[in-house]
Amino acid sequence: MDTKPIELRKKRVSGNRAKAELKAILYIVPFLIPFALFYLWPVLRGAWISLHVWNIQGMQRYVALDNYKRIFENSDFYNYLWNSFYFVLICAPTVLVLGLILALIINQRIWLRTLIRSVYFLPYVLSVSVISFIWLKLFDPKNGPVNGLLGLLGLPQDINWLTDHRFVWWAITIATDWWTVGFVMVLFLAGLQEIPQDHYEAATIDGAGTWSKFWHITIPGLSRVMKIQIFYQVISCLKLFGQVQIMTGGGPGDSTNTMIRYIYVTGFKKDMFGLASAQSIVFCVIMLLIAVIQFKLTDRKD
Known about the structure:
Layout: H1 4-49, E1 52-55, E2 58-62, H2 66-73, H3 75-106, H4 113-121, H5 128-138, H6 145-152, H7 168-193, H8 197-205, H9 210-221, H10 223-238, H11 242-247, H12 259-269, H13 273-298
Antiparallel strand pairs: 1-2
């Protein structure tokens, strides 16, 4: 039996596959070049710097893992890491709940629905600096509208929102929630509009109430969107910096110092770029572990 046609066919298939793979690689190259220049190279460079004593003048000496040892021997690391996680615990749930409530309201056929949605989303397009300066004025203890409103309601109006450790985290949370709730709302709204309406109609025919439909139809229908929202909000809250830097400067005391500000102060205020790079690597690893745990906990076959 002549096997040459079969071999030629195999070579042709193999050649076509190689061309297809090469074409795929060529399509990816425009993305890989900026990725390597602006993401991969800075990470590798930072890892190299973290192994040295490094200041504004450049490399001083190689110290291997000494910078990493200094991180875990310093109690400030654990305090600031806890501050970052504490902000996650109070900010992520509140913005998710508020975003879901707003999405449920706007998803109804209410008057000026598009305008209301735009108004709530508008703050998200502003920069963190603008948001922080706005709330810095709003929380002014003497002339701020927040204390003025509390006075009109008959509540204490002498609250030092940004210098009292009892209120400072809630002030930062309020500012952050106001800034980001529009984005959360839009994602939840998109998820709500993907839930088939006939599910609600069938539940109504079966006699299900509003609360029952919410728990058994709305929440399961938003499960995928909820996973994305939780993941994004946890990572975003861990990266808190701008609000703290502008509104409190890490105060009162060190009560609002976070890991990102800790890294910033170490590098740009104390001129210890080697140690700051090591702190960045450690914090990056922590966030990667959190991301992996989140994916494992929420991973299931649909």
